[in-house]
Amino acid sequence: MLAPAGIVDYVEHSALDKVALPINRLLVMAIIGGMFISLGGLLALVIAGGSPGLQASNPGLLKFVFGAVFPLGFIAVVLTGVDLFTSNCATQMVPLQRRKISAGTVARVWLLSYGGNFIGALFTAWAFAYMTGLFKPNEPATLYLLNVAHHKLENPFVTTFFKGMLANILVCVAAWQAYSAKDTLGRMFAIWLPVMAFVALGMEHSIANMFFIPAAMLAGLDASWGDFLLHNLLPATLGNIVGGALVIGLPYAWLYQQDA
């Protein structure tokens, strides 16, 4: 198992490798990453949404079930080596703090990652949620999806911001813990617990929301793209950036400086 200082050095090496990738490769990695996160969300919706009796009798347990299966996507992202914007919020801070890349380089990686994740999430919402017919009108899973999306849109800006902040703190902790593990099972468990926690707590992950809300719109949610972008995606994204970059990435880069 890697020690904390070793994890930060590993993160720096991984972040620099990503910076060196050609634009087209990073974009394709990000598209696949967005698709994987969305598939975890799709599985969680079908299982939790298909359990209306549990929702009525034990809503806390239903939240746990929803959170327990969602990490499928993030586990796939880490183990197969594709790209996720929210973890980049933390990892790119290490070489930035060590003055090995510029803020402009970080912005380039973030923008490519975010855009690719968005494409992958939208494709999954259309191809695998809508075109497969998983969410038929008035079925329990469909009603559950609509309720999840409606709740995400009705929160005040500041609430969604802080929910996004905590979501990415836990996502980046999951990534950090995964880097510490030496075997596949250890990595999977290191990822599963924090990701399960943020989902069960109802926090806001911008990439997951790129799937949840468009999928709900395709299923009949009465909301516009403006509602989605302004009332959810913007505050969730800003919260994700603060949680990943300022709470995890920069502090850990400073705590475990190479010349310390």
Polypeptide structure, described:
The chain has one domain (4-255): Up-down Bundle (Glycerol uptake facilitator protein). The two termini are 21 Å apart. The protein is globular, with a radius of gyration of 18 Å. Helices cover 80% and strands 0% of the residues. The protein is an all-alpha fold. The model has no long low-confidence stretch (mean pLDDT 96). It has 13 helices and no strands.
Topology summary:
Layout: H1 4-19, H2 23-49, H3 52-57, H4 59-69, H5 72-80, H6 85-91, H7 93-97, H8 103-130, H9 140-154, H10 157-180, H11 184-200, H12 206-218, H13 225-255
Helix pairs in contact: 1-10, 2-4, 2-5, 2-8, 2-9, 2-12, 4-11, 5-11, 6-8, 6-10, 6-13, 8-12, 9-12, 10-11, 10-13, 12-13
Estimate nothing, just give the exact number of structural domains.
1
> How many distinct helices?
13
CATH architecture: Up-down Bundle
How confident is the prediction overall: mean pLDDT? 96
Low-confidence stretches: none
- Biggest β-sheet, characterized? none
CATH class: Mainly Alpha
Name the CATH homologous superfamily: Glycerol uptake facilitator protein
Please identify the structural class as seen in this structure: mainly alpha
Order of helices and strands: HHHHHHHHHHHHH
Percentage of residues in DSSP E strands: under 5%
CATH topology: Glycerol uptake facilitator protein
Relative helix content: over 70%
Query: Separation of termini?
Result: 21 Å
Give the radius of gyration: 18 Å
Number of strands: 0
